[in-house]
Specification:
alpha/beta, 36% helix, binds adenosine-5'-triphosphate
Length: 229
């Protein structure tokens, strides 16, 4: 579904991700782990086209999209839930969802978004900025889902969120995986959460992949080693 080949990216002269080869198969959830500042967000931004790579290729559904704009990638079915949610605080919940609709090719907001996150229906007319952090995260995920993505990039969706909402987000990820063919890349720091949702993990350090394995074969101590050095 998605392949990264020898990908390198960074800001101005500084190289942040180096020589990344990564693969996500159909209907697979792949988690990217790594300490703060190792380049996880930079990697997602490069996949989404927000940051142009300095080298390498992004192949999506057998097509080279390395030079395509983010809007093109969104129309091709790639959805992005950025770190820190980036919802529009002065727009209502409903208006935030309409913005998500603009990214894809869907014409209407489907009810299943509210089935996943009922609170968003109750708070439809509230400003995004008046929601709690966890509710804003749900809104950010829902905003990506209204475009009916076939590939979802989620940047630390559980960061700073209370446990009951983390649980809800976990269920939604598993349900999307079960009921649609959506593939996902999830940046995540919590190994227990990763083990519950992922099929495969990559650990990044200093911008490069230092460990990769199917989740049912990982050794927790090895993963913690890379997260703590
Ligand atoms: N817009 C930017 N301009 C210059 N440098 C940046 C920019 N964004 C990030 N960086 C630098 O790139 C490096 C990687 O940052 P990135 O946000 O990709 O890491 P991360 O692994 O996602 O970290 P975190 O877990 O804290 O979100 C860091 O050294 C950071 O300071």
């Amino acid at each position: 579904m998605l392949k990264l080949q020898e990908l390198e990216a960074g800001y101005d002269e500084s190289m942040v991700i180096r020589d990344i080869d990564l693969q996500v198969k159909d209907n697979q959830v792949v988690c990217i782990m790594g300490r703060n500042g190792v380049g996880k967000t930079t990697l997602l931004k490069t996949i989404m086209g927000i940051l142009p790579p300095k080298k390498g290729k992004v192949i999506y559904m057998d097509t080279d999209i390395t030079k395509k704009r983010p809007s093109h990638r969104a129309k091709q079915g790639i959805g992005y839930v950025p770190q820190g949610r980036e919802i529009f605080p002065k727009l209502t919940v409903y208006e935030n969802l309409l913005v998500g609709l603009e990214a894809g090719t869907e014409k209407k907001i489907k009810e299943d978004v509210y089935t996943y996150f009922p609170i968003l229906k109750d708070f439809k007319k509230r400003n995004g900025g008046d929601l709690s952090g966890g509710q804003q995260q749900q809104l950010a995920i829902a905003r990506a889902l209204v475009a009916n993505p076939s590939f979802l990039l989620l940047d630390e969706p559980t960061e700073g969120i209370q446990p009951n909402i983390v649980q809800e987000i976990q269920e939604v990820i598993l349900d999307i995986k079960r009921t649609s063919q959506t593939s996902m890349i999830l940046v995540e720091q919590d190994l227990e959460f990763v083990k519950n949702v992922a099929d495969y993990i990559y650990v990044i350090d200093h911008g490069s992949v230092v460990y990769e394995k199917a989740v049912d074969e990982i050794n927790d101590d090895e993963v913690y080693h890379y997260l703590s050095v």
